[in-house]
Design goal:
Layout (H helix, E strand, L loop, with lengths): L23 H9 L2 E5 L4 E3 L7 E7 L2 E6 L5 E7 L4 E2 L2 H4 L7 E4 L3 E7 H10 L2 H26 L2 H16 E4 L2 E4 L5 H8 L3 H13 L3 E4 L2 E4 L2 H8 L7
Antiparallel strand pairs: 1-8, 2-7, 3-6, 3-8, 4-5, 4-7, 9-10, 10-12, 11-12
Protein name: Transcriptional regulator, Crp/Fnr family
Pfam family, one: cNMP_binding
GO molecular function, one term: DNA binding
């Protein structure tokens, strides 16, 4: 379905960390300097190692940010949902994007060129400070995931990955919690640093136990408690 024309919602910036602390006139100035960008499913907002020439806030839809390792393996760094920022390095200037951002569903993003966001940051220094805090928090999250990959058995890693997706985009449906955007077994493999074969085998076993229900690019967690037990390696109750 083609994307429809997007109307600007002035409240969009209220929940965006990088604009935290801005007074109403500052937010008005930021909105006036922004431009809309629509992304069809599968379209890339930017690519890894490309010059960071724009910063974005997602208004609607869902994106995934991926990286290709020196060994050539593609991994999913994170998913971006509505009111989240991406391309934050553009605020700092002179950097390249560390990953590739691809639309998982038809999406709308509000964007600022590097020159524009840089000018705003000069007028409102809190923008740059907030951007650095956000990047620091995401770096900590990435380090935690790397630690999981190095120290946890694969079943726990997969459970942690699915739990993150549920926390970010879980929607209650009859009999469970549906991850509310298309997610494939290959996506989960790339998210948890394992293989498609291992993910398929693990999810099939969990489906037999009633922990999850699998569909075509759909995943429903039927027993959230059981998922937590696996993720945290808790003892099973008799």
């Amino acid at each position: 379905m083609p994307l429809q024309e997007k109307q600007l919602d002035p409240a969009l910036l209220d929940a965006v960390d990088v604009f935290g602390g801005l007074d109403p006139s500052g937010k008005d100035e930021a909105l006036a300097a922004a431009h809309w960008r629509k992304l069809e499913t599968g379209e890339r907002a930017f690519e890894q190692d490309q010059e960071a020439d724009a910063f974005y806030v997602l208004s609607a839809g869902r994106l995934k940010v991926t990286q290709v390792t020196p060994e050539g393996q593609e991994i999913i760094i994170r998913y971006i949902g509505p009111k989240e920022m991406f391309g934050c390095v553009a605020v700092c200037g002179g950097l390249t994007y560390p990953g590739t951002a691809t639309a998982v569903t038809d999406s709308w993003a509000l964007g600022w060129t590097r020159a524009t966001i840089g000018a705003l940051a000069q007028t409102y220094p809190g923008i740059a400070l907030n951007a650095m805090r956000t990047m620091g928090g995401r770096l900590q999250d990435t380090q935690s995931r790397l630690r999981e990959m190095q120290t946890e058995r694969v079943e726990r890693r997969i459970a942690h990955g699915i739990a993150r997706l549920v926390a970010q985009a879980g929607r209650r449906v009859e009999g469970g919690i549906l991850i509310d955007f298309p997610v494939s077994r290959q996506d989960i493999a790339e998210l948890t640093g394992t293989t498609l074969h291992t993910v398929s085998r693990t999810l099939s076993a969990w489906q037999e136990r009633g922990v999850v229900e699998l569909g075509r690019q759909k995943l429903t967690v039927r027993d959230p408690h059981a998922l937590v037990v696996i993720a945290e390696d808790l003892p099973l109750k008799e």
